[in-house]
Amino acid sequence: MNVRSLQGTAGWRDYYELTKPRVVLLIVFTAIVGMFLSVPGWPGAAALLYGTLGIGLAASSAAAINHLLDARIDIQMSRTRRRPLPQGRMSEAHAVGFAAILCALAMLILWFLVNPLTAVLTFASLIGYAVVYTVWLKRATPQNIVIGGAAGAAPPVLGWAAVTGEVHANALLLFLIIFVWTPPHFWALAIARKADYEKVGIPMLPVTHGDKFTRQFILLYTILLVLVTILPYLSGMSGLIYLAAALSLGGIFLYYAIRMRLDESPRLPMRVFKYSINYLMLLFAALLLDHYFKVTFGL
């Protein structure tokens, strides 16, 4: 199907799919954790409500732009060919308009109801993912996800800034965790979908350097990730509850990474990819639990 000859008969489910809701949920969750960690107690209803809404709308806009820019390769990939644009259920004009409305709403909410710093940082993240990564990095280098991961690691910083109006060192620790988590997370998927990326000429690491090399890098990055996740405890940001969770979750991730290095089972990379998502959500939940345990009991 030619993605230019679209019918534009999209329903609400197609617009919903255009926002990549699962990805946005993870983004919003890590942003909310950043909000709560930024202050000892309650971050404030206004900052929490409008910050979450603005960041969520911006992430949805970036996802829609990504769908639009990747429509011509999505139709050739088994994982993405059923998306609204490749299937002809939505026109490019509708996707552009939808993304523009979401972006405009996000920026208005963040600028006027949160603070300008959060609006600027959020817009920079949107451009970083939707344009710099999708248009250039994704097609330019096998290190695309490493460099482009900075945009995806921004949500905790955005959440922190939404409440405090500043970028704190502890927020940058949260950024660093997601930044280091992104390569092993995405490279596992890239191995599982290597044939798709080869077909469309996207230079993902398994395509350019092979599975064995990529599995080695997944292991190295996972080791680095486990070390980085200890930093919130060493800096005094978090306590023993978080440390126990970080070491336990990291140990499982490391086990999977070692297995991937030794076992070339075709099903294992997707299992690692799915675990990595649960890993990040549980890790940030542990940060939140530890934070309020310390606040409540003074430990």
Provide structural commentary:
- This protein is mostly helical.
- The chain contains 16 helices and no strands.
- The protein has helices at 12-18, 21-37, 45-69, 71-74, 84-87, 92-114, 116-140, 144-152, 155-164, 169-192, 194-200, 205-209, 211-228, 231-234, 240-262, 268-297.
- Helix 10 packs antiparallel against helix 13 (211-228).
- The protein starts with 11 loop residues before the first helix and ends with a helix.
Features:
299 residues; mainly alpha; 0% strand
Which geometry do the CA atoms define? flat
List low-confidence stretches.
1-7
Classify the oligomer: single chain
The number of E-state strands comes to 0
SS-based class: mainly alpha
Proportion of beta-strand residues: under 5%
Distance between the termini: 60 Å
How are the SSEs placed, and which strands pair?
Elements: H1 12-18, H2 21-37, H3 45-69, H4 71-74, H5 84-87, H6 92-114, H7 116-140, H8 144-152, H9 155-164, H10 169-192, H11 194-200, H12 205-209, H13 211-228, H14 231-234, H15 240-262, H16 268-297
Helix pairs in contact: 2-3, 2-9, 2-16, 3-6, 3-7, 3-9, 6-7, 7-8, 7-9, 8-10, 9-10, 10-13, 10-16, 13-15, 15-16
Task: Give a quick rundown of the structure.
With 299 residues, the chain is mostly helical. The protein is built from 16 helices and no strands.
